[in-house]
Write a sequence for this structure.
């Protein structure tokens, strides 16, 4: 009588992700030594395959982080991440969403104060690239805005493009990202320098209707406006925020660029 | 026995190729003479963006099949219904001739390794796999194919050989077999069993698709990397496979260090040569 399937799979999983790489005795006793290898060496073939596959997936999502710290450093960094943050989805594209949280607490990378925010930006790019397309069936077209009666206008909830990913950083991470792209070219002197003290930035990563990927810098007003929209706030609620004086200008611009893809009317609470 | 007999949704024939992202544009521009493409379902699960748009454009030109690793059919975990829902949407959208996954487990307690891990071939495992396949087929409303794995270890408390396990799973669930000839070769060399005896143990009428790929010698064992041309011993085993099962549609896979499209096409043409001989 061998292990139950449940015991075996748990033991195997724990063995792969355990820090000391030591298998359970029972797992070792269940694996037939073969190919001139002992049981734990056979399990290690799978360990290396799993960790290698996950590392490769993270390098694909976080190529700039990997370039900034170097291949070996990155590989060492993700081993800890993989152990502490298991993948909870069968879709590998979902893995790595909380990598920036891990990077922010990863002691050996503390000197690179911007690294966690670069990771957030890269995750935003990954999500925007793979995001659902704009669905015309779920929202009213912006062209029909004029049909909304005046007394209902406060109930309008604009809809941000599904690919829109907002982030704020204390560092110019979009510039760090840009100069680390393989096709980056210096057009004028200083293009390849980044001043970390130039102040915080607001960004939106998104995909336009032609699948073009964009990272746009937002003003404080634009950020507050789009963040409120992404949180599902109504036009009446947005009119109470700091961006209120510029609402009509913001709305026009965001509709024109394609960041807003439609609207819904909410039932106002009475 | 399975309650539902699934009828095939269509047909592919000849030697197809696994679709890889660096070949999208070439295929759309030059429309190469390839009978069908296999798409990795896990690359399109988000349902949006350029990858799925290109996949749809290629589906408009060629028959396609869908192949994935996410069902985790051998896991003690229940099927992930959210994943199955997304897969169903993808199947409805791309209308593949076949949908396939593996005889393996990928997850436990909701934690995913994203790798194909080995099962002990026991009655307990068989029931788990049969139940998962049956449920997957009900959810997708169609037959699925399951692929034999490459393996690097065997459990000493298995009750049966892999081909017996596979044959019984197929009989009890009503699924079909995606026979990976490279995997049979790799596992036979690693575990020292007869690849031919393995093939002869499988139910001929259930082998719907064949996979070919390249392995790598790693010290004392063979590892299934999908990063090389198909090796000569695998071509030889492939010819024996065709003698046994007939001209089953065959797919050449290449996943790591993917070369120029013409290299893949050359491998598919070689498979086509053997398929023509087997007709």
């Amino acid at each position: 009588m061998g292990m139950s399937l449940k015991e075996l799979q748990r033991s195997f999983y724990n063995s792969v992700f355990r820090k000391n790489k030591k298998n359970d005795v029972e797992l070792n006793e269940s694996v037939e030594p073969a190919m001139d290898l002992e049981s734990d060496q056979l399990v290690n073939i799978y360990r290396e395959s799993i960790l290698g596959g996950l590392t490769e997936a993270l390098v694909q999502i976080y190529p700039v982080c990997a370039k900034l710290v170097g291949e070996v450093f990155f590989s060492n960094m993700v081993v800890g991440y993989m152990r502490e943050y298991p993948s909870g989805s069968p879709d590998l594209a979902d893995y790595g969403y909380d990598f920036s949280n891990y990077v922010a607490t990863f002691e050996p990378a503390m000197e690179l104060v911007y690294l966690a925010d670069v990771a957030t930006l890269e995750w935003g790019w990954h999500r925007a690239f793979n995001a659902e397309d704009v669905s015309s069936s779920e929202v009213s077209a912006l062209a029909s805005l004029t049909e909304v009666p005046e007394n209902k206008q406060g109930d309008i909830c604009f809809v941000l493009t599904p690919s829109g990913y907002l982030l704020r950083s204390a560092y110019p991470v979009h510039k760090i990202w840009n100069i680390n792209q393989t096709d980056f070219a210096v057009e004028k002197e200083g293009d390849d320098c980044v001043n970390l003290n130039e102040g915080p930035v607001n960004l939106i990563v998104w995909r336009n209707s032609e699948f073009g990927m964009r990272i746009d810098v937002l003003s404080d007003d634009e950020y507050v406006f789009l963040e409120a929209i992404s949180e599902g706030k109504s036009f009446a609620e947005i009119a109470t925020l700091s961006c209120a004086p510029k609402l009509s200008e913001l709305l026009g611009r965001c509709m024109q660029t394609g960041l807003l893809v439609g609207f819904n009317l909410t039932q106002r609470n009475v | 026995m399975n309650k539902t007999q699934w009828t095939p949704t269509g047909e592919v024939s000849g030697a197809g190729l696994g679709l890889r992202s660096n070949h999208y544009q070439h295929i759309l521009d030059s429309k190469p003479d390839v009978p069908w493409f296999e798409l990795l379902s896990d690359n399109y699960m988000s349902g949006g963006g350029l990858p799925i748009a290109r996949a749809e454009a290629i589906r408009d030109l060629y028959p396609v099949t869908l192949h994935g690793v996410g069902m985790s059919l051998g896991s003690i975990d229940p099927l992930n219904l959210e994943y199955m829902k997304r897969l169903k949407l993808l199947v409805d959208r791309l209308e593949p001739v076949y949908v396939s996954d593996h005889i393996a487990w990928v997850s436990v307690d909701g934690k995913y390794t994203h790798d194909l891990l080995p099962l002990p071939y026991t009655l307990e495992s068989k029931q788990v796999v049969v139940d998962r396949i049956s449920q997957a087929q009900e959810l997708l409303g169609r037959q699925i194919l399951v692929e034999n794995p490459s393996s690097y270890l065997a459990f000493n408390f298995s009750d049966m050989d892999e081909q017996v396990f596979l044959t019984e799973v197929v009989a009890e669930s009503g699924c079909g077999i995606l026979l990976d000839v490279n995997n049979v070769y790799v596992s036979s060399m690693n575990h020292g069993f007869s690849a031919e005896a393995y093939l002869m143990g499988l139910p001929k009428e259930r082998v719907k698709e064949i996979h070919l790929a390249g392995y790598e010698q790693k010290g004392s064992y063979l590892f299934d990397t999908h990063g090389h041309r198909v090796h000569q011993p695998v071509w030889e085993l492939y010819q024996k496979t065709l003698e046994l099962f007939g001209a089953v549609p065959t797919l050449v896979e290449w996943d790591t260090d993917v070369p120029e499209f013409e290299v893949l096409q050359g491998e598919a043409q070689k498979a086509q040569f053997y398929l023509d001989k087997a007709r």
Summary: Chain B has nine helices and twelve strands. Residues 15-278 of chain B form a domain with the TIM Barrel fold (CATH 3.20.20.150).
